[in-house]
Amino acid sequence: MVSVLFVCLGNICRSPMAEAVLRHKIEQRALSGAVKVDSAGTGDWHIGNVPHEGTRKLLDRWGISYEGMVARKVKESDLVDFDYIIGMDDSNISNLRKLTGGAEAEIMKFMDLLPEERLREVPDPYFTGNFDEVYRLIDAGCDILLDKIVAEKL
Fold it and tell me: Where is the Phosphotyrosine protein phosphatase I domain (predicted)?
C-alpha cells in the first residue's frame, strides 16, 4: 500500500482538500486498494474540526466526499509511516523538516508537481478566501501525483 500525507498549517483548508481530491481520483482509477491518503496540520488550533466551510462547499460543488475527515496535527511517526509527505508551502516544509530531527524523510512541496505555475506555494484560502484557485492547483497537482505514484510504486 502506497501512502500519501498532505500537510498544511491548520489541516482545515488546503490539506483536507488535497486529501479528498486525491481520494476521489484514486477511486476513479480503481486504485483504492493500492493507495491511501491522509492529511495533517503543523499547528494544533483546529484539531478535531471538520474541514473549513469554504473547502466543504467547494468539494460539495464537485461531488467529492470529505466524509469522516477531521483535523489533526502531524506527528513524528507520520514521517516514517508515509511514502509521500507533501507540504503546501515553504513554512509547512520547514516545520516538517524540524520534526525529522535530522532523519531523512521524503518531503516534497506540492507546487513542485506544477513547475509551469508561477505560484511556488499553494495559497492559504483561510486568509485569501480563494478556494477556487486552490482547487484548480490541487486538482491539477493530484493528477500528476497519482501518475507519479503509479509510475514509481505500482
Answer: 2-148
